[in-house]
Write a structure and sequence with these properties.
Helix-turn-helix transcriptional regulator; about 50% helix; 2 domains; ArsR-like_HTH; 12 helices; alpha+beta; WH-like_DNA-bd_sf; Arc Repressor Mutant, subunit A; three-stranded antiparallel β-sheet; WH_DNA-bd_sf
Length: about 230
């Protein structure tokens, strides 16, 4: 599913049918954190038997929503790509006005910082995107959002390695509408790479709960040096 290849009415109807089954919806939601999971685990999450889960997984694979990684006799499932993840995340938006306040009150940690598929979302993700746009470190264009060299220099000064930072300059991102904040955070390959770099550097760590990210004190200090401040 891309802008270059719009859906036909038949494809749209098939996607609707795929999402209409609660067990398949549960499988897709479980994979929204970017993980790769075996069929047995997805069956337990969906609350169905292994045989039923196998049938659902086949339909999702055939429908192009899932990807498959085979390792020996083991089969692991993931979302097909970032486009599918962004589309699924967008499906939440029509209900955001009803669910966001309840979600924030119920789980403020998740709303503060989390993964949206594999990139940073929540209050911290929005703060980063807005701060770097204001500083002119991110530039939007017809091919997406790119990181400018002045930003790469600032990242190196803050402690990032020069080689990975230079790789960021070749990637493109996109604005992804945050379902709790109703503002944009940085998605796409650039957003994923920046999030991975912050995890590797210890600025963020994964929480035990699904999708939540915890900024470390050192991470918050270094992000503040880059203009990104998270209200406490």
């Amino acid at each position: 599913m891309t802008e270059a290849s719009p859906l036909s009415r038949y494809q749209l109807a098939e996607l609707g049918a795929l999402l209409a089954e609660p067990a398949r919806a549960a499988i897709l939601l479980a994979l929204m954190d970017g993980t790769t999971r075996p069929a047995g685990e997805l069956a337990r999450i969906a609350g169905v038997s292994p045989a039923t889960a196998s049938a659902h997984l086949k339909r999702l694979l055939d429908g192009g929503l899932l990807g498959l990684h085979e390792q020996g006799r083991h089969r692991y499932f993931r979302l097909a790509n970032d486009d599918i993840a962004a589309w699924l995340e967008g499906m939440v938006l029509p209900h955001a006005s009803r669910t966001a306040p309840a979600a924030a009150a119920r789980d403020p940690v998740l709303c503060r910082a989390r993964t949206c598929y594999r990139h940073l979302a929540g209050q911290l993700g929005v703060a980063l995107c807005e701060a770097w746009l204001d500083r002119g470190w991110l530039q939007t264009g017809s091919d997406g959002i790119c990181l400018l060299p002045v930003a790469a220099d600032a990242l190196v000064h803050t402690g990032w390695q020069a080689s990975p930072t230079q790789q960021l300059l070749r990637l493109r991102g996109r604005g992804c509408l945050d379902w709790t904040e109703r503002r944009l955070h940085l998605g796409g390959p650039l957003g994923v790479a920046i999030t991975d770099a912050m995890l590797d550097a210890g600025w963020l760590r994964r929480a035990p709960r699904q999708r939540a990210l915890l900024p470390t004190p050192d991470g918050l200090r270094r992000l503040a040096e880059l203009g990104v401040r998270l209200d406490t």
